[in-house]
Each structure stands twice: as C-alpha cells, then as structure tokens.
Amino acid sequence: xxxxxxxxxxxxxxxxxxxxxxxxxxxxxxxxxxxxxxxxxxxxxxxxxxxxxxxxxxxxxxxxxxxxxxxxxxxxxxxxxxxxxxxxxxxxxxxxxxxxxxxxxxxxxxxxxxxxxxxxxxxxxxxxxxxxxxxxxxxxxxxxxxxxxxxxxxxxxxxxxxxxxxxxxxxxxxxxxxxxxxxxxxxxxxxxxxxxxxxxxxxxxxxxxxxxxxxxxxxxxxxxxxxxxxxxxxxxxxxxxxxxxxxxxxxxxxxxxxxxxxxxxxxxxxxxxxxxxxxxxxxxxxxxxxxxxxxxxxxxxxxxxxxxxxxxxxxxxxxxxxxxxxxxxxxxxxxxxxxxxxxxxxxxxxxxxxxxxxxxxxxxxxxxxxxxxxxxxxxxxxxxxxxxxxxxxxxxxxxxxxxxxxxxxxxxxxxx
Amino acid sequence: xxxxxxxxxxxxxxxxxxxxxxxxxxxxxxxxxxxxxxxxxxxxxxxxxxxxxxxxxxxxxxxxxxxxxxxxxxxxxxxxxxxxxxxxxxxxxxxxxxxxxxxxxxxxxxxxxxxxxxxxxxxxxxxxxxxxxxxxxxxxxxxxxxxxxxxxxxxxxxxxxxxxxxxxxxxxxxxxxxxxxxxxxxxxxxxxxxxxxxxxxxxxxxxxxxxxxxxxxxxxxxxxxxxxxxxxxxxxxxxxxxxxxxxxxxxxxxxxxxxxxxxxxxxxxxxxxxxxxxxxxxxxxxxxxxxxxxxxxxxxxxxxxxxxxxxxxxxxxxxxxxx
Lengths: 416, 323
What we know:
The complex is a heterodimer of chains A (about 425) and B (about 325). With about 425 residues, chain A is an alpha/beta fold. Chain A contains 11 helices and 15 strands. Chain A has 2 domains: about 5-175 and about 290-370, Rossmann fold (3-Layer(aba) Sandwich), CATH 3.40.50.2300; about 175-285, 3-Layer(aba) Sandwich (Rossmann fold). In chain A, a hairpin with a 2-residue loop joins strand 14 and strand 15 (about 380-385). At the A-B interface, strand 1, helix 3, helix 9 and helix 10 of A face strand 14, strand 15 and strand 19 of B.
C-alpha cells in the first residue's frame, strides 16, 4: 500500500455544470442532473464515523390471506444493513465509516420515549420505520428539529402536505405517486372506464382519494364505486360472491381495487363477472421495488440482498437501503458530516442517487419526497415503469407522479 | 434507416472491393444463448454459433490474436479458446461472476471485475492462477489497462468512482469521483487520457492520467429521444485520438465525438440497446453489439454510415474482431 496520504486523495470532477445549475436552480431541463460535487474533496487522513439509528415499531401481526406472504422479521432493517455495507465499501476510499444501531419498540410501546431515552443526543441521522402518528410526535420534539429523519414506512399524502415537516424526508412513493403511475398506464392502455372496489380500512379510503385525484388528472371516468364489506356469512363463497359483487350496470374497462391490507383484493382476479383486468393494490400494482425487477443493474442488488438475507428484497428494505445510500452519497459528495449541510445537499439540484431504476433519484424540495420511477408489476413480472413515455414535464418527467411544486399543500414552516 | 437500397448496395460493393484482401472475423458473445456467434462481416453472414458456457459476456483477443478469452459469468470462469479452431483450451480462474475484463498490453495478465464481490481479480494467464484480488468499490464493472502498461483503471457503478491501480504494486493509488453509475472505461492509445461513461448522468468524462482529474465532461442530446434513454456505455477511441465512438444504450445510437475538441459531431442509428463496440483491425469500421434487436451493426467510419446489420442470436453482449 502506498502512503496513506495519497491513498485517501480523492479527485473530484470539475463542477462544469455548476454555473448552469446555479443560474437556473429550479429549471434543470432534464432529470439527468449530473452529481456535480460542489466542493473539492480534501485529503482524509483519518476515518470519520457516521452513526445512524434505525427506530422501528413491531407491527401487529397481519391477517393471513396467502401463505406465500411470509412474515419478515427484519423487514426494512435488512435493507439498511446492506446499504451500510455498500457505504463502507466506498468509505474505505473516502475515510468514512457508517454504523447502524437498531432500536425497536413493541406494538404498544412508545417510540418517542425510546428516542428520548436511547437515541437523543447520540445520533444525527434517523431511519424511522413508524406509522404517521408516532412519526409526527417524534418530528415535533424540539430535539429532533436539527436532525434528518428518513421516513421509510409511510406513503400518506398528508405527510407530504398539511402534515409535512422540514426534518423528514420520505423515501417511499406517496399514494398520489402510485395512483398517478397506475393512471398513466391505464391511459396508455386506454382503460379509461374504471370500476372501483374499495376496502373498508381507513388506508383504503386514502388510496381511493389518490386514485380519484389521478382519474381527474388523466381524464378517466369512474363508472362505479363499491365498498367491499367484510362479513362472516357462511353462505358466501368467493366464487359466487365476487361474480355477483362485480355485476354492475355500466360496462367498464378495468377493475381498480383499493385494499392495502390485502384482505380481499387477491380474490378478485379471475372471479369477476366480466373478464376485466384488476389493477391497484392487487393484480397490477404500483411499487417502489419488486423481486422481478432486474433492469438497470437491479439484478445485482437483488443478488446481493438475497445472498445476505436469503430472501427477496421488499419495498421497505429498498426504502431503507436508499435512505442510507442517500446519506452516504451526500456525505461523500459534500465532504461534510454535519446534518445541516448534508440536508442542504440532499435537497439541492446536485444530489443524484443511483436507485437501480434507470434515472437518478433526488428529493423534492417542496415536500421532502424522494423523486423516483414507480414500477408497475404483476406478481411475477415488471409490466411497465412509470413515468410512462409521453407524459411530459418541463423539469423532469418524474414530477408527473404525485404532487408537483405548484400543487403542494406543504408549508415547511410548520416544523419547529 | 435513411439509406436507400441502392446506396446501401453501392456502399457494400465498395466496401467489399476495399476489404476483400483483409477479411476479418467478428466474435459476438450471446448472453442468453450461452453461445458465441462467429460472423463474416464483409459477406454479412453468420458463419456459425458455438456453445461457449453459461451467460457469456466479456470477450477479448490476446494481443497476438491467437487466443480468444470469454467470460462465462454463470460458470465463474474465463474460457480460453483457440482463436482459429474455437476449441476450448482451458479455463482461467476469475473470481465470482466475471463480467468484463481487460488484458495487459503484454498479454500476460487478465484483469477481471467481480461485480458481486467488490473486487478486481488479477490473473496470470500462463500459470492460470490468481495473482491478487484487490478490494474496490461496490459493483465494479468497466476496467481498462493503459497501453503503456502502468495503470489499471476500474469503475465502481454504485460507489461512483474510478479506482487507479498501479500495475506494479497492484494497489489502489488514487480514486476519482465520477458521475453516477460509471460503466465503461477506455484509455487513449498514448495512455495520457482515460475516458469513462456515466450511464445515469448520460455523460462521457475525459480524465487526465497524470492528474487523475476530469478535464472534460461531454453530454449528449438527440432530438426526439428523451434524455433518460441516453445511457452511454461502450467507448472506442481511434489510435490517433481523432474520433471517439460512444454507444448510447437504449437511445440506439452511436455518438461520434471529436476527440480533440470534444464536440459531439454525429449520432448514428444502430440496433436496440447498443452497449459494447469494437473497431475493425484497420480502424475503418466499427461493430456494435445490439442487445435487444439481437444483431450487430457495421458502421463504415469514413462515410460515417451504418452499412448493415447482421442477426447473430439472443442478447449480443460483447464484440471482438480478429484480422
């Protein structure tokens, strides 16, 4: 090995595009904003350690519809662990060491109390695998104001709108992004007449709202909407029940289902009265990640993940992976490890994260949402990737999905 | 194709007349056919297809053109074929999942990037053993040996770095941060520059070998093609450093770059998802492996015209040309 000094020397690309970018910070015409490092990387003689906390809450066991859906104990955290390994492989050349500490509260526990007790003051970066309510309680603590909270669990549009917080970045696509992705595909297929079947869980209502918004944006017609009630009548069988339930007066092109918990949606396909495709939370779904996704180098991370964990990478693992990788990328490129400049960098036009989806990922400055393609997937294949070709946007086509800057309801000043 | 049939025939005729005396053979690895296609490009015919192992990707000829090396990724080995008979002569250890590799200018070593293991494997060809495995960034892919024998450069796709490895000590001396998801690397013939493509930023970067700094970043724009489709991969630079050719992946084009001024001069339409490219021995033609259209394109470089495409098999990946 040569002298340590030269070993750690990093050369940074000249910020050739920097002039252009700073002249029009919000108008980078293409989403190909290259990751130009804004500052020169200086010599690193010693390793700096970056401590990240992973705060999760064990969920209540879900209802089992299919034995094919395993209960995964390390959902999310396994993705974070893989990203730590990847960051540290890079870190050996840049003088960074990333460490992840896991904190889990039981289903009825209090994540805020655990934070106060074990995390506060020790970690500047936090991955939160929490539902919206505890997440907001945590984000509103005075002590978390200067931190960066990476939300890897929620798709709620409200967290990107009225309930947004400036210290939270959201990794998963919002419900609006998913609904827009599905609507773009249905528009491409000219499946313009929707029959909506909605579960009775509160989340299903939220996804239905997102779907209705998408139907308006893309000029779709909802010919009927029916709520699926969970009843326990011994005379009901799925075969007869669904055929009857899906007989409606108007013809429709596609059955759009909102059943986030997977309570009944899996039963719809092949049992409808009319032969129509099922799309939404079952059938063709909109997801950030899928085991069948292999394009753009995805096969490599799929193999790395499976080799490490023995299972396929799920959406939440992918979100946790991206959160830790985003942090790694920002720390290496900005050559800082203080939360404030890191966050500025993450939200800047220079930030470009490789997410195995063919286009660089970045954060929306107006609501902290990670801008990303959304996969449209059948159970064993990726059917299409949204944004779908032909849906145009003046800045980046990725912003045809979800709430764009002019539509945002997020006022970051709500944050403490 | 904007070319009329008559023009095509005329050009083919001219080309055949010019090159009748210097017939060349094109080898194409077929990733999904587990096979190697052997093509007579001048006649425009697929001569034969031979089984070559599981998931063949990178391939290269020895400097004396006697041996053809083919990475059989799913067999975790690099096969040595007699370039005349195409009989398998032996196996080289390669580390896990070899994808691309570079041959030292003397032809004594292979440098293999092991994508899943974040390392570069250095193989002694004569002794068929591994000299060293060098830790690099995540998902190393593009790899190039400088013609002067001094440097080995390797690009890590997820770490977004080019690692400069000294070929004497076989250690990483320096690292250059580059645009996201760097793919291919190519030294200029004088070893003074290293060119690299970034698939995600859609850029071509030119690095100075002495300073290891990026001296120029080149972007591509094609009317009617979204920028997301422009994913530069393979690079070929002519020995005089007059022109460089860059495969633009799903944009289905080869970009022609003036290697002195760095201006992008032309885009040539080839087959679908063009990744890897290779010159003819006289540097008058360029061959492109088109992964989705299952063919190779032949480009006449004097006229900058795509002369023909030749169907070869499923998922053409790499291309090597033997005089």
